[in-house]
Fold this sequence. Notes:
Blueprint: H1 28-43, E1 46-47, H2 48-53, H3 59-77, E2 89-91, E3 99-106, E4 115-117, E5 121-123, E6 126-128, H4 131-143, E7 146-153, E8 166-167, H5 175-190, H6 197-219, H7 225-256, H8 262-284, H9 295-298, H10 303-310, H11 316-325, H12 330-343, H13 348-354
Parallel strand pairs: 2-8
Antiparallel strand pairs: 1-2, 3-6, 3-7, 4-5
Amino acid sequence: MNRPPLRTRARALLLLALLSVTGAACSPAYVMRAAWEEARILNRRQPIARIVSDTATDWETRDKLLLVLQARQFAADSLGLNAGDSYTLFSRVESDTLVTVVSAAPKDQFRPHTWWFPIVGSVPYKGYFDPEDAAREQQRLEARGYDTFVRPSAAFSTLGWFNDPLLSTLLRYDRVSLANTVIHELFHNTFYASGQAIFNESLANFVGGRGAIEFFCRRDGPSSETCRTAQGAWDDDLLFGAFMEQLVTDVKALYARTDLTRDEKLALRERLFADAQRRFADEVRPRLKVDTFGSFTREPLNNATLIARHIYYDRLHLFEDVYRARGGDFLRAMDDIVAAARTNKADPYAAVQALLTPSVGG
């Protein structure tokens, strides 16, 4: 299964900056570059249906484009997601990396550095179309004493403000990852809690993972390879999420200690990170069914790299618990979670947790 590393299909959220040139986090040069790149993408759009019907289109491309159309239709008809005209068009881009995403965090705090954008509020990452711009931002942040993480992204979402085309960068994904991505992105078109980027991404991870299971197991049958792979991928996400929760708890506990100096905390965290990677290799990875997390043991850890991963796996078990409490009714679970999140914009996780708490006298 060729899933994008570290869920780098994550939103760069660049184009929403166009809604306010005066936004505090958006310089005019940044906005203009985003506008230029979006215009190039939109100008290259072609209807997917036309490409599929073209006899010159190779079989693999045609097969994946048909899958995208089927997954988006399923998301709209069976899951009630706001598909609009997203993923009915295709745009070819020049490289495998569409944007370069920068994340940062203080070295002695498990707290993401954030950037503010109109509409979406604060987000713990910022995307750049020019890798050199991303490198300069990384250097600026490191000079201020931050941990940093720079990673490629194959796509971004405009959260429904534009009819996002399928980008050629996504065609390298396997079928299950591709359908998962389409459903994940369309959920962002449907619901996005301003200023709650981590909740949004983790919930979209749940919807994409469980939605892909619904799609393939209904379409291809419960014994099909695609159904089993989609289920295995989601089981892996839950397992990795549980591992991450424990690691994050340990890191936060270390930083909260008052008997240690900052230098002592930084030295101890390196031992904690090394131990976590060993435990992952020895105890977690052998239990994975699809195993898309190999990079966790290859790449160095710091607060920024850890937070970048954690964004997509924060309290995944909470959404899964609601799903199971609803008897495996995915649509009901998703609707209840969204409705709950709308009632508590300051802490949507607490609202979802309340779905699992029996009412007094109930």
